[in-house]
């Protein structure tokens, strides 16, 4: 049985869907189909599906990890396995990890604003106002953070419907021929598409806030399936609208796709997309800010509001110090490697350690009871 | 120090005679003996508070009847045809009751014990009826609350003929001693809200309660929010509807506005008229109203953002008229919009303060003459005039006055944000408002329910008004004890099920 907090602060089981899905969507959705062209080209949808499966397994693994923790989150798991000192070091590293993710989320979005809408406004201004907004939400508590993820899924879902607009100019034959790539290309695609799905690791921090329900796992996996479908759909639309050769050279294909939409009242639909993406981005942003503050708070037993302000300050300084696109690219590479090694090397290792510990404890208990 | 303010004057008096001397300072205080012979009975009261007719018809004859019989106060009590009577020696009680419209009867034989009889004039100085002018509806009852608390309770009781309706009375205000009533349905309303409301009502103090909206503001969960957390209305049907759905209503004496809670944001955009029309029509009007609010909040801000930063978004066909309208306007879009918005607000405020007849004239003069002249003088563009006028108009579609004020107020920060950061500013403001609404609670119940916390089960009666066949359950987000309102016909009739 997993440890959860008092019923007054836990969230309704359905909202877990929005938390998982909300934390998985980000700026990557606007650019990923072009990036995937470096690997298995039009066959990359296979790797996207594979990602969905891998992340579902990862989520199940998280559920196991969380049941093993005395306080229901990864911080208490660290201290219970590795002792106080090493646990504290690991938790501090986790705090830094979330700060890095936070900087990445924010900086990539600000990058889009700069490229598409306001080329001359300084970066720090956008970082500041978006961070202040996120800080206001996080100061309101976990409930508001979840709410932001909820609206961040609901509002943009309406925008996704409009994607069917350019579909009449698309030809699905662009997806053919099927499976004409070798394993190495698929591997590249997989490595590029795995970071898109990252974000569910925050579950390890907010798990005590998700009330126990028999459908918890099902809801979580449904969210991952929804994310996968969304990515596959956008990928197919992009490939069918632009062809593979063209797609591999244009940046931000999802936004370019939205440029084809025009109404009598609105031209340049991508503006609406860029702005509305703020609602999408603010959800995971708040969640990451909340998670990092929570780690700090649990570890050092500090007051929550001050920690939120301090974390916001650190993120602001880091974000505004990244000026050139080259640095951003470096950051992206760093984040991708860290996220992948955290999700697919560190956490499985932790899982194995946990499992062995549980087995030995079981045996120990058994032998003790035999002696008794 | 604080105690001195609230302390009644009777605390300082040594005996009843001293208190009566103090009362006599006031010219409307009467103190006399109705029977001259022997001077054995004396009565005193505030002439302006008691009903003279009742006094002459029912009290004085009793004195004449007992004349010369050396009656005791208990005998008088038996003969007087009133139910609210009390024998007391306590000075504080006497003071409280005299100022509350009681008459004091005292025998010369026993000078410390008195009989207090309630002959308060409940009706004088009050309106007897009120048409719901401020919350008008074409269809449906037009009777509204008045200033008199008892009349208001009667109005609700006539509509809600059910013994489960309980009115709990509390007195608030150390000078006005206003009676404040809390109405709930026993066995339906969640007792948590009743307890919270009573606890909050008891835990604050005021000197004079001028209107129920004072109480409303003080017991609100977040007093700094621009959003009203209680729905205040003068319509009897609205209050009844809220109460049967499991909310509590709070009435204050001297106020024609009753407020109900816990209310959610959605409640403020519902008009009782929606329920008096066929559900299709009612739903249509409700959607129009909600769209109106969205338009009112964002239209002028969008104009500012588009004209300042993102004119690429405007299609070819529209950019021509927009530019030619703005060609001779010397101001930035922000100044232009703020100028017009403030003008409209000033017009509204002037119209609200002036007598009705002048007010309507002013509306015509202000709206047409100033608007037209401003366009001709090239102070604003005529397209903006349309947008601002429309957004003012749409803000008035909100049925609850307090909420429409909030909508009009929130427009200004959004316009400023749009002028600073374009479309992103609008989105930031939108997210901030959303976050604020998610934090907000009304009597401890979430304000944005049932959308967030998400309860899709109760989404039926929110954006649309469903048919009565589907609304037989109470809204579960405010956790009523009993959730069935009525049994729809299709369930009751076994033939229908076949």
TrEMBL record, chain A:
Compartment(s) where it occurs, according to its Swiss-Prot or TrEMBL record: Membrane
TM segment ranges: 12-33, 45-66, 94-117, 123-142, 149-167, 187-207, 219-242, 271-290, 302-323, 335-356
Gene Ontology terms: cellular component: membrane
UniProt key word Transport: yes
Keywords carried by this UniProt record: Germination, Membrane, Transmembrane, Transmembrane helix, Transport
Entry annotated with the keyword Transmembrane: yes
Protein name, as recorded: Spore germination protein (Amino acid permease)
GO biological process: spore germination
Family of this protein: Belongs to the amino acid-polyamine-organocation (APC) superfamily. Spore germination protein (SGP) (TC 2.A.3.9) family.
Topology of the protein relative to the lipid bilayer: Multi-pass membrane protein
Principal subcellular localization: membrane
Lineage top rank: taxon: Bacteria
From TrEMBL, chain B:
Keyword Transmembrane tagged: yes
Transmembrane segments: 287-306, 318-342, 354-375, 381-401, 413-438
Highest rank taxon of the organism: Bacteria
GO cellular component, one term: membrane
InterPro entries: Spore_Ger (IPR004995), UPF0353/GerABKA_families (IPR050768)
Xref: Pfam families: GerA
Key words of the record: Membrane, Transmembrane, Transmembrane helix
Gene Ontology biological process: spore germination
Family under the similarity heading: Belongs to the GerABKA family.
PANTHER family, A to Z: LEUCINE ZIPPER PROTEIN 4, SPORE GERMINATION PROTEIN
Protein name: GerA spore germination protein
């Amino acid at each position: 049985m997993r440890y959860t907090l008092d019923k007054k602060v836990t969230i309704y089981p359905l909202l877990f869907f929005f938390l998982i899905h909300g934390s998985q969507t980000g700026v990557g959705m606007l650019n990923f189909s072009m990036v995937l062209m470096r690997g298995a080209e039009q066959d990359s949808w296979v790797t996207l599906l594979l990602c969905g499966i891998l992340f579902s397994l990862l989520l199940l693994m998280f559920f196991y990890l969380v049941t093993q923790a005395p306080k229901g989150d990864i911080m208490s798991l660290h201290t219970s396995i590795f002792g106080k000192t090493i646990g504290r070091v690991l938790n501090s590293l986790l705090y830094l990890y979330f700060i890095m993710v936070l900087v990445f989320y924010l900086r990539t979005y600000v990058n889009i604003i700069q490229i598409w809408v306001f080329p001359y406004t300084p970066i720090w201004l956008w970082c500041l106002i978006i961070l202040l907004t996120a800080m206001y939400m996080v100061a309101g508590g976990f409930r508001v953070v979840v709410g932001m993820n909820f609206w961040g899924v609901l509002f943009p879902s309406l925008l996704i419907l409009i994607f069917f607009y350019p579909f009449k100019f698309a030809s699905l034959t662009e997806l053919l021929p099927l499976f004409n790539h070798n394993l190495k290309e698929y591997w590249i695609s997989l490595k590029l598409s795995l970071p898109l799905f990252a974000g569910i690791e925050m579950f390890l921090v907010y798990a005590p806030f998700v009330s126990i329900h028999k459908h918890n796992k099902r809801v979580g996996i449904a969210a991952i399936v929804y994310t996968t479908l969304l990515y596959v759909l956008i990928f197919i639309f992009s490939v069918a609208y632009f062809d593979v050769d063209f797609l591999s050279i244009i940046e931000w294909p999802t936004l370019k796709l939205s440029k084809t939409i025009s109404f009598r009242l609105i031209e340049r639909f991508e503006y609406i997309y860029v702005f509305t993406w703020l609602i999408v981005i603010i959800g995971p942003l708040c969640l990451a800010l909340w998670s990092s503050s929570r780690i700090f708070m649990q570890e050092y037993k500090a007051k929550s509001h001050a920690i939120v302000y301090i974390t916001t300050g650190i993120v602001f300084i880091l974000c505004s110090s990244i000026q050139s696109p080259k640095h951003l690219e470096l950051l992206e590479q760093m984040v991708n490697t860290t996220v992948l090694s955290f999700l697919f090397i560190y956490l499985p290792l932790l899982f194995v350690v946990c499992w062995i510990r549980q087995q030995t404890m079981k045996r120990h208990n058994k032998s003790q009871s035999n002696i008794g | 120090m604080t105690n001195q303010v609230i302390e009644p004057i009777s605390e300082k008096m040594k005996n009843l005679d001293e208190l009566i001397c103090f009362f006599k300072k006031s010219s409307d205080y009467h103190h006399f003996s109705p029977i001259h012979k022997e001077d054995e009975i004396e009565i005193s009261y505030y002439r302006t508070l008691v009903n003279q007719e009742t006094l002459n018809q029912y009290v004085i004859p009793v004195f004449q009847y007992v004349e010369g019989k050396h009656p005791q106060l208990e005998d008088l009590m038996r003969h007087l045809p009133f139910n609210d009577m009390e024998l007391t020696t306590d000075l504080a009680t006497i003071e409280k009751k005299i100022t509350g419209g009681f008459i004091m009867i005292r025998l010369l034989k026993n000078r410390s014990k008195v009989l207090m009889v309630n002959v308060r004039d409940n009706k004088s100085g009050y309106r007897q009826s009120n048409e719901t002018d401020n919350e008008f509806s074409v269809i449906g009852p037009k009777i509204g609350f008045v200033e008199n608390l008892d009349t208001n309770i009667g109005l609700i009781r006539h509509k809600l003929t059910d013994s489960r309706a309980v009115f709990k009375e509390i007195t608030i205000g150390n000078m006005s001693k206003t009676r404040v009533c809390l109405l709930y349905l026993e066995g339906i309303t969640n007792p948590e809200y009743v307890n919270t409301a009573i606890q909050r009502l008891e835990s604050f103090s005021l000197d004079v309660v001028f209107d129920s909206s004072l109480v409303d503001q003080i017991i609100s969960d977040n007093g700094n929010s621009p959003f009203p957390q209680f729905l205040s209305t003068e319509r009897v049907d609205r209050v009844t509807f809220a109460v049967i759905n499991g909310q509590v209503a709070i009435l204050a004496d001297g106020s024609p506005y009753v407020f109900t809670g816990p209310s959610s944001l959605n409640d403020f955009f519902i008009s009782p008229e929606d329920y008096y029309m066929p559900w299709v029509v009612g739903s249509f009007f409700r959607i129009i109203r909600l769209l109106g609010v969205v338009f009112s909040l964002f239209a002028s801000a969008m104009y500012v953002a588009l004209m300042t930063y993102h004119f690429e978004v405007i299609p070819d066909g529209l950019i021509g008229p927009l530019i030619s309208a703005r060609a001779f306007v010397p101001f930035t879009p922000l100044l232009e919009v703020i100028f017009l918005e403030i003008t409209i607000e000033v017009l509204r405020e002037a119209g609200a303060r002036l007598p009705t007849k002048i007010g309507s004239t002013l509306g015509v003069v202000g709206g047409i003459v100033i608007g037209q002249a401003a366009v001709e003088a090239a102070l604003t563009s005529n397209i903006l005039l349309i947008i601002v006028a429309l957004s003012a108009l749409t803000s008035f579609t909100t049925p609850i006055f307090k909420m429409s004020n909030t909508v009009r107020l929130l427009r200004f920060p959004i316009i400023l944000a749009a002028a600073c950061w374009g479309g992103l500013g609008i989105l930031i403001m939108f997210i901030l408002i959303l976050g604020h609404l998610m934090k907000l609670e009304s009597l401890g119940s979430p304000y944005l329910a049932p959308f967030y916390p998400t309860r899709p089960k109760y989404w039926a009666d929110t954006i649309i008004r469903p048919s009565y066949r589907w609304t037989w359950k109470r809204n579960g987000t405010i956790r009523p004890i009993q959730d069935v309102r009525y049994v729809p016909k299709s369930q009751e009739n076994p033939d229908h099920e076949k």
